[in-house]
Design a protein that fits this description.
Length: 396
Amino acid sequence: MKNILLIGIDGGATEVSGWVINYPDKTGLFQISGLNVQKKYSDYPDHIPGYIPVDIKTQLSEMNSAIHLTREEKQQGDVYMNATADVITGLLKKNPEKKALIGIGMPGLKTVDKRGIAAIANGPRMPEFSEFIELKIKEKNLVLSSPVAHLGSDADYCGLGEEYSTGGLFRDVENAYYLGGGTGAADALKLKGKLIPFDQAKSWIAKTWEMKCENGISLEQYASARGIQSVYSRYSNIPVEELNNNHIYSPQIFEKALSEDKAAIDTINDVSMYIATLLYERITTIYSGWSGLFSFVNPSRETPEKNHEYSGILLDRIIVGQRLGDLLNYSKETPLLWDQIIERLSELVNRNHNSRFKQYYLQDRKFKEEIIAISKLREAPAIGAGVDAFLTYKKR
């Protein structure tokens, strides 16, 4: 493997980031190196500001048949893929004597061969994603050690990063839930000592984006940095584009709440309530099965089964990561967000009728704050992508 450069790619809705990942040490743990390249889609001349995705129902209906890309979708997709290729070639040019082994995490539902994106809520479909990347690398006279095996889930890669990286918070526990909040919400699970992809557990637990609260809005809006901005946009009547132009993101919205901006206070109050309720849904669903706390964005989504093989498990840790984790960590020094989440969680657990459940999660009728840990592993998705590529390669 000395002549192979391991690269982990974390693709988001606004930019793509790539890191060279160091191979595992004697403990089997991975670390990122100092080599990083990032590309913003908006820096490309063909980028379409305010791009509107194809209706998700249309996307889902075409997933298993012919995918008909619109002209705008093809243009925006080329921007995303060119940015990804530029990140990879940028890293390879710093190590031109090496071949590349690449793991790529991208949002969206993948094509049948797992090498393309067949449906995505906030961007363009890119069914030929891997083929496009491989061609661009070849055009630069750079070499891959093997083709891109598959595109992975950024959420699953967060879990892999937390499990296989130095400083990862999955490593030293048997049972934990991870909630990462960046552009979207990422869910990851470790139960009975093993990582459990949400796609494998969908019969009994739902992803954050699938669930909606009583106002009809997906919980992802309250559990992601980008979503928090959109909530504030609705309360303040300021378009998201204008907020972006003025560099008003979730940290600035939080500061506005501290300064008694009403729209910001309403936003943080909602975020606190729904994050607390989401975390309560997680610990109860794992412990005793689905109880219907939320309805679904897709009304055709099958109701999760009440019984599952992990019933009775109490979580060692709840991990909050990415920009949402940063925000929660900062809020600990203030009366907003963190304290509000703990207060709401305490109320919900106190209402539970199971004495073992209550005894475990409460101390003096207050939710045990030490169960919630803030991840400092901002690069978890990129590390996880590299880990997946390495493990896949070793299996060949």
